[in-house]
Structures are given as C-alpha cells and as structure tokens.
TrEMBL record:
RNA-binding is among the record's keywords: yes
Protein name as annotated: RNA methylase
Residue span, THUMP domain: 43-154
Highest taxon listed in the record's lineage: Bacteria
C-alpha cells in the first residue's frame, strides 16, 4: 500500500475525502488544502481517472526532518532515485512551503534537483535533463516548519483541466470547483438543472458529466504516472475501457444553460462537443430579463459576476436585484444556488438564504447560497 495526497482547493477537503472514500481509498485524513489516503496502484489510476475535485494526486516517497539546505540535500540523497528515474528520463522539481532557512521555493527546488542528479552522476556517470513542460518524472517537495515531504506527482497537468475546455469565457470557474459546488448542493441527476448565467458552460457541463457517469479523466491526453518506471499501461487501458462502458446513454432530466452573450454560448457548445455531451445539454442565448423556469421544479445554479474580475464598472447591485426578482417571480417550486464573493451584492438579491456554504474561488472567499423558492 502506498501513501498518497490529493491536493484540493481550500475548504473542499472534507468533500474530497468523501469522494476518495467512494473510489475505494483507505486511511483517509483531510488536511490543509488536501487529503492523505492509502491504496494500491489500481486506486492511484482510478482516482486520477474518476476524481472530480482534486488538482493533483501525489505519491509520497519520503519524509524527513529538515531545517536547512544541508538537511534537504542529505534527505533527498537518502532516497534511491534509480527506483523512479533513469538518466535518460527527464525531470522537474516543484517546491512549496518554507521554513526559516529554506524560504525561497526556487532555491529549494534547485537544491533537490542537485541532490538527485548528483546521485545519478555518482552511480551512472550520467544524469537526467530538466524538462519543465512535460517531464517524465515530476518531483514535488513540501517544506512545513522542520519537516520535508518528497513526492512524485502522478497527475501531470492539474486534474481540474479536464481537457474538454479550450474555449472559456472571461472569468471561468475551475471545473473542479464547479463539480464541488454541484456535490455540495445535493443535486441529483433526476432533477432538472438550469444555469441562466452559464458563460462558457462549466456548471451545466460538469452536471452532465456527473449525470451521464462520465469519468472526467477520459478527456486528458496523458497522466503523469504513464511515464513512470513501473507504469502499467494495460491496467490503465482496462480502467479506461471500464469507465467508457459504465457511461449512461441519456440524461434522466434536462440540463440547460443560457447566457446573454452569443459568443460565450458558442464557446459552451464547442466545449459540450469536446466532451461528447452536445446531444444532451441544451445551450441558448437569453437575456436575464427574459429567463423563465423551463419546468415546474428543478435546481437553478449560477455564478454571477461579483466585481473581482468581471463587470467591476457596471451597476452590479441592480443586476443582483434583477436576478433576485427573476428567481422570486418565475422559479416558484425550484431550489436556487448562487455563488458570490461579495456579501453586499448578495444582499441585493433580496431573498433569505436557507443555507450558506463557505468556499474559495481561487484565493477569493465566497459563499454558495441556497434559496428555497416557494
């Protein structure tokens, strides 16, 4: 059994722990911006393929006391790197965290790289080249006070980049956060889903993938573990085939998205095509004033602009008031979820929320507000 660590957005640790448990992870422990767990290689591949919330899945190699650069060099050299890396494979090192002596991540990463390639030179008179974009082996080191953790990054590019979304709007929601919001809401695929401010479609698309039981990792070109020395590509192939066979053929209930901007609706349709759900999810260009409930009941989701990145100069207070009026007057019998990073604007909706969930959109603290519309 190996020890793994799934990195996640701040505030989503317990939600990610639930997801990992459903995928078969053992000894699960939520931490800060991540969840540690144990499992075998099958689980590592399965989590990379199926998990909707994490950014990266790290495999822990070693943990050691580390106060300064000498401790760091010695600790990294104590690992037998020939188990993970040959001189003809490329390498990259990423460092996070710091302590009093090691307070510059670039220096920390350089010291780790030196320790690895010096060991290779001593043993093989040859060494790995550094390749920052797409290395064969991505090493990550994390300094937390006087402790250093060395891991291999099994994911490669961040898992939130599903690969279906080359077309994005001006302030796109990360796919992993969209999936987390949907999970937080308790939405079930048997309920209609509608986003009247859908932008390039991330929320309806993530809802569609969940409802159709589509593994989010199916759209990726590669995972980091595919170039590891112990990579089992037959196992990965089996897991991919099983994932494809488990997809549902149709949605139990409609999933819709609309936006006032025809250009972002075009982007949403491109993204839907890329993830194979263009025949399932419906996108249209509609002004907020013209939005009406397409069914007697359902779940409405939206991520309106909150002045951090979009629409700072426009009258957002009036926009939120308009949104509140549309919800009150036209969506009786529905449940609405609104994500906002601005408390004053949220009050302009003019509705009393029945529940609030604290989440982070990047570094920005936000609230997902639930409204029962009677």
């Amino acid at each position: 059994m190996n020890q793994y660590f799934a990195t996640v957005a701040r505030g989503l640790e317990s939600l990610a722990a639930q997801e990992l448990e459903q995928l078969g992870a053992k000894t699960i422990e939520p931490g800060f911006c991540g969840v540690s767990f144990t499992g075998d290689r099958d689980l590592l591949y399965r989590v990379n393929l199926w998990a909707r919330l994490p950014f990266r899945i790290l495999m822990k190699l070693h943990e050691f006391p580390c106060q300064d650069s000498e401790d760091l060099y010695r600790g990294v050299q104590s690992i037998d790197w020939s188990l993970y890396l040959t001189p003809d494979m490329t390498l990259a090192v990423k460092a996070t965290g710091k302590n009093q002596q090691l307070n510059h991540t670039h220096f920390t990463a350089l010291q780790v790289k030196n320790a690895i390639v010096d060991q290779q030179q001593d043993r093989f008179s040859d060494r790995s080249n550094v390749e920052l974009q797409s290395p064969d082996v991505q090493v990550t080191v994390h300094i937390d006070r006087d402790l250093c953790t060395v891991s291999l990054d099994s994911s490669g590019e961040s898992l939130h980049r599903r690969g279906y979304r080359p077309a994005v709007g001006a302030a796109p929601l990360k796919e992993s956060l969209a999936a987390a919001l949907i999970q937080l809401s308790g939405w079930q695929p048997e309920q209609m889903f509608y986003d009247p401010l859908c932008g390039s479609g991330t929320l309806p698309l993530e809802a569609s993938l969940k409802a159709l039981n589509v593994a989010p990792g199916l759209f990726r070109e590669r995972f980091g573990f595919e170039t590891w020395l112990d990579a089992d590509l037959n196992l990965l192939d089996e897991l991919i085939k099983a994932a494809e066979a488990s997809q549902r053929e149709s949605l139990p209930a409609p999933i819709w998205g609309s936006d006032r901007n025809p250009e972002v609706i075009e982007q949403a349709i491109v993204n839907a095509t890329n993830c194979g759900v263009s025949n399932h999810v419906y996108f249209s260009t509609i002004e907020l004033e013209d939005v009406a409930a397409p069914a007697d009941s359902g779940v409405l989701f939206c991520n309106p602009p909150y002045g951090e990145r979009l629409g700072r100069d426009s009258d957002l207070g009036a926009f939120y008031k308009r949104l509140g009026n549309v919800l009150k007057q036209r969506f009786k019998g529905w449940t609405a979820f609104v994500l906002s990073g601005n408390k004053e604007l949220a009050q302009s909706i003019g509705l009393r929320s029945s529940q609030r969930f604290a989440v982070y959109n990047g570094a920005l603290p936000c609230q997902l507000m639930k409204y029962e519309l009677y």
